[in-house]
Amino acid sequence: MISHHPKTQALLASDPFQLNEESSHLFLESFKENALFHYEHHLFTRRLWDKLGFHPHELKTEDDLKKVPGMMVHLFKEHEFCSVPREELALVLTSSGTGGQKSQQFLSQESLENVKKLALSIHQALGMASDKKYNYLCFTYDPAIANDLGTAFTDELLTNFTGKNEVYYGIQWDESKQQFELNESGVLEALKRFAASDIPTRILGFPALLFEMIQKYDLKINLGKDSWLQTGGGWKGKADQEIPKFEFRQFIQERLGIPEANQRDLFGMVEHGIPYVDCVKGNLHIPNFSRVFVRNPHTLDILPKGERGLLHFLCSYNFSYPAPSLLTTDYGRLGACDCGLPGDTLILEGRAGVSKHKGCALKALEVIRA
Ligand SMILES: [Zn+2]
């Protein structure tokens, strides 16, 4: 497919963790291209910029990005904001959140290809992609039964970054109960099978499910030093059981034989779409495909590095969903890491006004329409 957005293609073809004057220019140009598209194709976006008396053409320096108006995340939950006709969409991603509100994101074919490209690029840069074959244990729906594009998308995104041998899906349809359930005996058998195999393993999914399985069956196996654990989705709904990241990593190394350096967590928001992935030291590095500002929750002023505030995300890959500048209700701050990758890290500090998040983690990436 021919992209009409060359600046964004140039950004996505560049190294996500090489930060210098050139990378700043690449992001700025791509963001300008994207913001201009939404300004021209989405009325609400145009009114918001106009109201502030700021135009995408006025983006000339990295510092100007701080002037971009942020669109509150709740607007995207209440309205179906889209910058292209619905028939041009290739995928709609949804995630159920608190209070029955759904988060969603609309992806045109171009935007879908862009997000796949940048996710692969980030995983490659973090040394997580490989041509080697792996056995996969996924704590997600079995796509043979949940026959929709959501699982296909998740599957492709998560398992296509390496060669694949067996892929086992732990969450399966229970005909008698008419619901999806974790097939515990199937998961146990897969783990034993993979431990006995010469091929290394990758486990994907929610940390709480894996933690519960290990505790319940008192598991102690050795998947080998080339195996990986890639978690995501947090401890949603199980926040009371959450154990600190580094304690969890030690526990997994002890019980499954997966080295701590090969255990990586991923943070993503459906509306934003950029994956923030742990480096070897367990910190979420911010790639050049996005910008993260931390704002004072009362004044919305940008806070200095290290101070806690509301997270404001900028990205430029999506030419169908007008969320290039997303002001969230999540708290966080910017940190640093000495692993060798440059740039700031993202430290998450919870959601504003919600103590225990009870969203349905299992539905984190569910497709309602394709
Ligand atoms: Zn690091």
Strand order of the largest sheet: 6-5-4-7-8-9-10
Outline type: globular
Number of strand elements: 16
Strand content: 25-35%
Number of helices: 9
CATH class of the largest domain: Alpha Beta
* H/E series: HHHEHEEHEHEEHEHEHEEEEEEEE
Ligands in the model, by name, code or SMILES, are: zinc ion
Describe this protein's structure.
The chain has 2 domains: 6-92 and 284-350, Rossmann fold (3-Layer(aba) Sandwich), CATH 3.40.50; 116-276 and 353-369, Rossmann fold. It has 370 residues and is an alpha/beta fold. The chain has 9 helices and 16 strands. A hairpin with a 5-residue loop joins strand 2 and strand 3 (102-108). The strands form 3 sheets. It has a 7-stranded mixed beta sheet, with helices on both faces. Strands 1, 11, 12, 13, 14 and 15 form a 6-stranded mixed beta sheet that branches. Helix 2 crosses helix 3. It is globular. The structure holds zinc ion. Zinc ion binds next to loops.
Which features does this protein show?
16 strands; Rossmann fold; binds zinc ion; single chain; 7-stranded mixed beta sheet; 2 domains; 9 helices; alpha/beta; 370 residues; 6-stranded mixed beta sheet; disordered C terminus
